Amino acid sequence: MMSKIKNIIIIFCFCIVGLSTTYAQDNERFQIIENEKIAFITRELNLSRKEAQDFFPIYNEYSKEMWNVKKAKTGNSPSRNNLRGNSRDVIAYDAKELEIKKNYREKFSKVIGTSRSSQFFQVEQEFREYLIKSLNNRKNNN
User: Fold this and answer.
1) How far is residue 24's CA from residue 81's CA, in Å, rounded to a whole number?
2) Per residue in 73-110, is it b (16+ CB within 10 Å) or e — as a string?
3) What dihedral do alpha carbons 7, 10, 15, 20 form, nearest 10°?
4) What is the DSSP letter of 61?
5) Where is the signal peptide (predicted)?
6) pLDDT digits 0-9 by tens, 39-90
7) Which of 10, 76, 96, 131 could bond 71 through an S-S bridge, CB–CB 3.0 to 4.6 Å?
8) Cβ distance 77 to 68 under 8 Å?
9) Is the CA virtual torsion 56, 96, 109, 37 positive or negative?
């Protein structure tokens, strides 16, 4: 009886270690991508050190808001019913994304000017395309 319990505890510990290792690897990959994105945005928008210091805290807020709307839009969030009472109204989510972008374009412009704050959204899209190409290339080379 004791050896069965001991075996169960050992298996449980291995499962916990395996899950936390997977989580750490996913978190590390996410951080690498985020660092690459920051470098890409900084380079493409030609941000000075001061501008980058002021810009990225605002960007992080923007990113978090957009992430929450995208999760709700795809149904991966319990708050998906918050937009106009219809969880499948894709247009309402698109409108919310546009509202967020307009709001943050104003906030960004206070730090980096109107032209570069508008350009930011294009740069963000270019990074996504770059990332998708990189992932596809990695897949095709394996």
Assistant:
1) 31
2) beeebeebeebeeebeeeebbeebeeebbeebeeebee
3) 170
4) H
5) 1-24
6) 999 999 999 999 999 999 999 999 999 999 999 888 765 554 445 454 568 8
7) 76
8) yes
9) positive
Number of H helices, E strands in the chain: 4, 0
121 touches 105 (CB < 8 A)? yes
Radius of gyration of the chain (CA): 21
Q: Single out the residue of 42, 74, 44, 71 nearest to residue 59, CA to CA.
A: 42
pTM: 0.71
Report pLDDT digits (tens) over 90-115.
Answer: 899 999 999 999 999 999 999 999 99
Give the tokens for residue 84.
């106009």
